Amino acid sequence: MLNLLRKDFVALKSTLWMSILYLAVFSVAFIPKLSSSIHLVGIYTAFALLNHGTMIDIKNNNHHFLVTLPIKRKHIVQAKYIAAIIYTLFGVLASYGIHWLVKLTILELNKPDYSVMDILVPVGIVLVLTSVYLPLFYTLSKKGTAIINIVFLIILLALAQPTAMLMNMVNENGFSIDQVFLLILIPIVLLFIASYYLTINLFTRKDL
Fold first, then answer.
1. At what angle do helices 117-139 and 37-59 cross, to 10 degrees?
2. For 35, phi and psi rounded to 5 degrees?
3. 122 vs 184: CA distance, rounded Å
4. 69 pLDDT above the threshold of 90
5. How many angstroms separate the CA atoms of 73 and 1, rounded?
6. pLDDT tens per residue, range 40-65
7. The pLDDT value given to residue 85
8. What global pTM score does this model have?
9. CA–CA distance, 200 with 75 (Å, rounded to integer)
10. What share of the chain is helix, strand, coil (3-state, %, to 5)?
11. pLDDT for 94
């Protein structure tokens, strides 16, 4: 398991500049213009890292090689889901850190005060996207994955307004962290777990 995780991060380490580029581009694009930039930068960066990691697998034909080794397919899937959680935390926390610095140094942007909700909600959104994306990734061929990447790109582009509306609803109704966990995060975690087991089932049956 650890070696499978290391495989993903060694591959990403060789393109570490891409992670920094994603974060920089999304920050420059959204921070000056949108009040919900803290959420969008985190969501876009996290999902871009996940997408980049899966594209490396496809480019190098990693799955065709891994299934020839004495490794259970469920461990291959486990490693990718754990990596997705790490990408999510990196993207969302990096966005939070950048916005905190911007709020302290560029006062004219008049950014709002940030709370734990500004971390939890983007994490939840990325986990939902991941829960849909990974079963499709492990089921479809290289050509099919290219199509779902286009579809998810369109979804991400359309995500700005719904994310802003969701955060406004959370803030206006004054939800506590406990309420957010019960109403949003617990169902999302259950969806993530269900997605994991579905992906194992689909990938185990797939001929490579």
1. 20
2. -70, -25
3. 11
4. no
5. 11
6. 899 999 999 888 888 877 877 766 66
7. 92
8. 0.85
9. 9
10. 85, 0, 15
11. 93
Q: How many residues does the chain have?
A: 208
**Exposed/middle/buried for 13, CB within 10 Å: 0-12, 13-18, 19+?**
exposed
> What residue type is 200 in one-letter code?
I
- The confidence score (pLDDT) of residue 92 equals 93
Q: Is 47:84 a contact under the CB 8 Å cutoff?
A: no
Provide the token pair at 10. 């060694």
Residue 162 structure tokens: 């719904």
Over residues 86-126, the pLDDT tens digits come to 889 999 999 999 998 888 888 777 777 787 888 888 899 99
Residue 175 parent element (H or E)? none
Q: How far apart are CA 60 and CA 50, in angstroms?
A: 16
CA distance 114 to 1: 36
Separation CA 106–CA 34 (nearest Å): 15
Pseudo-torsion of CA 88, 1, 205, 134, nearest 10°? 10
DSSP 83-151: HHHHHHHHHHHHHHHHHHHHHHH-GGG-PPP--THHHHHHHHHHHHHHHHHHHHHHHS-HHHHHHHHHH
What letter represents residue 185's amino acid? L
- DSSP state, 172? H
